[in-house]
Please model this.
Amino acid sequence: MHVAHLSLADFRCYARVEVPLDPGVTVFTGPNGQGKTNLVEAVGYVATLGSHRVAGDAPLVRLGAERAVIRAAVVREERQTLVELELNPGRANRARINRSDNVRPRDVLGLLRTVLFAPEDLALVKGDPGERRRFLDELLVARAPRMAGVRQDYERVLKQRNALLKSAAMARRSSGRVELSTLDVWDDHLARAGAELLSARLDLVAALQPLVRTAYEELAPGGGPTLLEYRSSLGEDAELGGGREGLYRELLRGLGEARKQEIERGITLVGPHRDELGLRLGELPAKGYASHGESWSFALGLRLASYELLRADGGEPVLVLDDVFAELDTRRRQRLAELVAPGEQVLVTAAVAEDVPSALVGSRYSVADGEVKRDS
Model:
């Protein structure tokens, strides 16, 4: 799988740019703030319908423009698909596949898969639990695009249930009377959607565990064993091995036990949105105990494991290394380059060409003042 051509209109700093891309390694170099990351950000948006840098679409539209357009020619098994996305902040985004308008943006998911390495990845180890939950869920969607709908269903139900709990909390404080006749219905909806999401996460963590251990050992030989631990908001005594129906019953039980506290606080306290992916290095949690280099190796190990998992599913993803080499010491820099160099397509950004290890040989582009020029 690779992107053969990228076209942007009013995306970030680019009024318009056309970038032909080859399989193998492509390196974009130039001073910071010139638009290198914008290019790979657009590629990632086609794969995930989101940016790795910002939460919303508004910052992606060039100042003064009403919309942005991303077009990518994606080649998979010698077949080319043209994907077009129109970003309309404040309004519904639009999508086309091979010039057809009869598609939703969500239909684009799965046509291109990417694995991104970026400075922000350090938050996978050092950041809050939401960073690790998002990592799991984005990988779930990359493997099975239908999981995007599962996530949306869960978030919709959670929002409705939280609104009901908030109203109940306010009513309880003002009058002492609480009307919760519909809460049982929302409990059932939340447990159903939550069980499907939780089941998928548990399977994913089990599949990732040996791959993360191997990747970490390759990046930091002799650095000690790594361990992924899925920690459910249901508590340590919860039975998580009973399949989707068992998880549904466990979530209903947990919601019932937490109801009094939830009404007092006006928020849902049980469910996948409160779970944590624990990362351990040896006997200690990585967060707070791992050194800077160990944290980087763990974060990179998570990304390399994701790459291997997607490869095993069929269809090698595009690898994106966004300004990551400047963050690594020489040994980790060289080892990462050696591991990713054989990829079908590897897109690299770097402020300084010398930061890119010699193992990454391929096409080179210079990026400056909103222009992208292929080096001779």
In short: The domain at 119-314 is CATH 1.20.1050.90 (Glutathione S-transferase Yfyf (Class Pi); Chain A, domain 2).
